[in-house]
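Section 5.1 Outputs to date
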Amino acid sequence: MRTTAEETRRNKELIINTGIQIFLKKGYDAANMRDIAEAAGISRGPLYYHFESKSVLYLACVKAYSERSLIEYRRIFSQDKHILELLREDLYYCTRNIAPNSEHPIFTTSKEDSLKEDSLKEANQIFKTYRKRVYEMKVDSIARAIQKGELKKEADPYHMVNMMFIFYEGLYNLIEKTDFITSKMQVSQTIESLITLFKQEYCI
């Protein structure tokens, strides 16, 4: 029986969605095409029909993941809420991937592999562009909050966003490399501490 165009599209979407989950769970190096095929409930034939290699599939997964995350960031910062509420929601959203025992860890590739294959180089570039767009979105939101009078005029949007990125990277390293933070409650407490700092320093 011939596969319809709609079935082909659904199969490709299923593979990408499954690939995202496997790459998130295992990381690029540990994941393999067999794992993804089994998790998707398909044979490796359809998998290789759509994606000729693991790196090509990874690239498709990175594109899809980045696009979906950007949609969520746009939703967060388009809400009619006080800037601190938006920043709080943003911090909980972006740290969902690094909380201890998270079901949504972040994408990882080895530096050695990323230098070898064009698909991985492109995936890394997509991540850089994605992070830049998220950074600019946050800066713009804070700048608008200053104009609305929610924050002091002397508040620096770039400084505040830099603090958020440093917070994220530092939290990631603490969780990955130490046992200083071992629960989601500790992550939540740390987020609330940063929001309190912003309130004390920048709110009118």
